[in-house]
Specification:
The protein has 178 residues and is α+β, with helices and mostly antiparallel strands. It folds into two domains: 5-65 and 146-168, no CATH class; 68-143, His-Me finger endonuclease fold. It is 22% helix and 23% strand. The protein has five helices and six strands; from the N terminus they run ββαββαββααα. The strands form two sheets. The chain has a four-stranded mixed beta sheet with strand order 2-1-4-3, sandwiched between helices. It has a two-stranded antiparallel sheet with strand order 5-6. Strand 3 and strand 4 (49-58) form a beta hairpin. The longest helix is centred in the N-terminal third of the chain and has 9 residues, at 21-29. The two termini are 34 Å apart.
Length: 178
Amino acid sequence: MDNYPVLVLNLNYEPLNVCHFHRAVVLLWQGKAEILENGRGLIHTASTSMPIPSVIRLVSYVKRPRPQRKLTRREIFIRDQYTCQYCAKQARDLTLDHVIPRFLGGPHSWENLVSACGACNRHKAGRTPAQAQMKLLHQPYRPRFSSYHLINYSFHKQEEWDKYIPEWEREQVHLSCP
């Protein structure tokens, strides 16, 4: 019960966060949130009972900056759908490749990193794709942040959250590669 996850929605139903059960109960008791989905069962206190929340919505709008996705190996692989961007081989044992090598002034950024299999990375060997006579499947880009990533990194998703996180099903397709 202590680590039971609760999805927190903004006033406009935009997913904001996932918090622990205890934090959600405090928000409910303070009148700062309302229950949208009942989790499993009831919480009993000396004077009252309350449904265990699974999804809560804040009663006032919280303005926050749009979060950015972190530049990590895993995020590059997810963006590229675990596919080598030179030969289209799908695999889990990919490497990162700087399209323009770092020693030639290429930045370590979303727009210069791609997934590559070991064979393609060795063939390219510190050259640009044009010099190595290799063509990229897709131009690298900075992906948008979605509420799926907020949930994916925080806790395991609960069934009751499906209607509040429309990106969930679409993103699961990207993660199911071999």
